[in-house]
Amino acid sequence: MVKLSTVSAIILASFLVVAVLTPTPAAAEPFQWVRIGDIDGFGFSLTRGLVRPVPGVGPGPADTNDNGTLEPDEFLPDLNADGGVWFRGDDNFDNRSQAERANTGHACQGCQDVGEATGGSRWTDLALSPTATASDWPDINGPAMPNSAAFIFDFTVARGDITPGGTIFFNLVFGDYDIDPAVVRLRFANAAPRILRIPNQQIRGLDGLIQVRTANLRFDEVFTADADGNWHGRAVVIFDAPADPFTAFDYVELSLAAEVAALSQ
Predict the structure, then answer these.
(1) Per-residue b/e over 165-199, b at no fewer than 16 CB within 10 Å?
(2) What is the three-class DSSP state of 98?
(3) Among the four 41, 167, 233, 247, which has the fewest Cβ within 10 Å?
């Protein structure tokens, strides 16, 4: 007959084996950012040899720091080297990935869920120009002006993965805005809309300039509590430039970081 102490030892050993073999549930990842498009310098994979326009700062590399990515304060390329970035030349480009074309080119670090309504990546890595020849144009009216890009954020963050009351930073990276008027319109689910003015690059004489428009948003502008106590984020971004015949977008994001996202992300 097996002694009781021996049976207890066997049961204890069994529990230990189960504990070792059972994986520990992964800890939830705190929310960091949600992004439409990606950080790839408007989809230009080879930047060496791309030149910036002659007017303004003069001829030179579009990728001024030669790091392989076109970033804010650098330039969209003058692809035909005719001295300007514009719709009448051959500066049109379509560098969209398959996901961006399918309007699913978005990502989130720390989201519980990204809703199907999230979209707008089809507007990124594309020259918005009335002379473009892309067959799958993001605007149902085709490339004819105006080309006012629209981006929709619809996502959920678990209640323990973000601290209520903090600041949410809005970042939009775009290039070659030079014909007024143009504004960025922000609309929220349960807050008053905002209008963000943007500086015209021609004031600085920088044709093809890549800019970033940032804004500090209140937590309660972006988020509302859902029925489960989690945080539902909702925002619509419209870049309204009815008279500008040539613009482009790299990405737009809502982030806990005050600065534009690092290239390594």
Answers:
(1) eeebbbbbbbbbbbbeebbbebebeebeebeeebe
(2) helix
(3) 167
Half-sphere exposure of 66 (CA within 13 A, CB side): 4
Q: How far apart are CA 158 and CA 233, in angstroms?
A: 11
pTM for the complete prediction? Answer: 0.86
Task: Tell me the backbone φ, ψ of residue 233, rounded to 5 degrees.
Answer: -100, 135
The distance in angstroms from the start CA to the end CA of the chain is 64
Strand segments (E) across 110-182? 113-114, 150-157, 167-175
Q: Which helix (H) or strand (E) holds 236?
A: strand 231-240
At residue 228, what is the residue type? Answer: D
Helix H segments across 37-185? 98-101
Does residue 99 contact residue 118 with C-beta atoms inside 8 Å?
A: no
CB atoms within 10 A of CB 163: 10
Name residues whose C-beta falls within 8 Å of residue 77's C-beta, 6 or more positions apart in sequence.
44, 47, 50, 51, 52, 62, 70, 85, 91, 208
| CA 200 – CA 185 distance, rounded (Å) | 16
Q: What are phi and psi of 153, to 5 degrees?
A: -105, 125
Q: Which of 256, 216, 213 is nearest to 238 (CA)?
A: 213
Rounded Cα distance, 102 and 226, in Å: 29
Residue pLDDT, tens place only, 158-183: 999 999 999 999 999 999 988 888 89
Task: Give the pLDDT band (50/70/90) at residue 198.
Answer: confident
For the record, the structure tokens of 159 come out as 């209640």
Place of tokens 């230009």: 44
